[in-house]
Design goal:
Blueprint lengths: L8 H20 L3 H7 L2 H13 L4 H7 L8 E4 L6 E3 L12 E4 L4 H6 L17 H11 L1
Parallel strand pairs: 1-3
Antiparallel strand pairs: 1-2
Helix pairs in contact: 1-2
Length: about 140
């Protein structure tokens, strides 16, 4: 049991791996050793499972509550299934809403609240993911 989430040993191992991969990116950024594990589709699968199991997480609330997003957003990463986020609902794979194109390694970063440098406005001093989402939604 982890914060109310009954995890199998395999799920706990994935959670630990996900934490290590995300925090490595926090410290080092987009080098090959960060990009490769972040690009693993299991990182997205784990994020979505965690958000469903732990709705009180700040990262989960970003996608469930209508605070940062006001209409459906599709997070697209190449040929992989889209992740569609509708305000007030869970993140689910589907087709709908405005589209944000992401590199495979950027999708788990965005889901977990990180803001890849490519998405930041060049003249902004410090832009959070919520700032980027608001800007992209208002530009669309």
């Amino acid at each position: 049991m982890y914060t109310g989430w009954e995890m199998t040993a395999e799920r706990l191992a994935m959670h630990s791996h996900s934490e290590a991969v995300l925090h490595r990116w926090d410290l080092v950024g987009d080098d090959d050793h960060s990009v490769r594990p972040l690009s693993d589709p299991a990182m997205v699968t784990h994020a979505l499972a965690a958000f469903d199991a732990l709705p009180a997480l700040v990262e989960s609330r970003r996608w469930r509550d209508a605070c940062a997003i006001t209409r459906p957003v599709t997070l697209r990463s190449g040929h992989r299934p889209d992740v569609v986020v509708a305000p007030g609902l869970s993140a689910i794979p589907a087709e709908a809403g405005i589209v944000i194109e992401l590199a495979p390694h950027e999708l788990p970063l965005v889901l977990w609240g990180r803001c890849p440098s490519r998405l930041r406005y060049p003249s902004a001093n410090a832009e959070t993911l919520d700032d980027v989402l608001r800007r992209l939604l208002s530009d669309a």
